[in-house]
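Sample intake sheet
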Amino acid sequence: MNDRGGNETGSSPGRRGQGKLEAHVLSVLKGAAEPVPVAWVQERLGGDLAYTTVITILTRLHGKGAVERERAGRSFVWTAVSDEAGLAALRMRKVLDAEADRQAVLASFVTALSKNDELLLRELLAAEPESDEPPEPTASSEEDR
C-alpha cells in the first residue's frame, strides 16, 4: 500500500504509483521528435491527469536528471534524456548514495541476485571499457580469483 491508500501497482481506480507514473511520462516524452510543452505530454497520457500533476512529474524527473527543459516564452518545453531503464538506474544510484557502507550494500545486492541476473551483471561488467585506475583490492575480490 502507498501512503495515499492505493497500491503501487496502480490497480486502485485513478491512482498509479509514482514510479509507474514517472516511467509512463518518460515513455511518452521519449516518443517526441523535439522538445514539447506540458500540454503535449498531458494529451498523450490520456487526459486523465491534471496539467499541474504532469508539471510536477516533469519537474521531479528534471531533478533526477531524466529530462531537460528549456524556456519557451513564459513556460518550458521538455526533452527526455533517459529512458525507463535509466530512470530505474537513477533510483538505484540514489539509494546507494544514501548509504554509508557502499561495499556492504553492493555485496548484499549482488548476493540477492538470481543466477541469471548475476551472469548478466558479470557480462555487463566484463564488457565495460577498462578505467585508467585499477580497482581497490578487497578481501572478496581475492576470493573471486
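Comment: Strands lie at 67-72, 75-80. Residues 18-80 form a domain with the Arc Repressor Mutant, subunit A fold (CATH 1.10.10.10).
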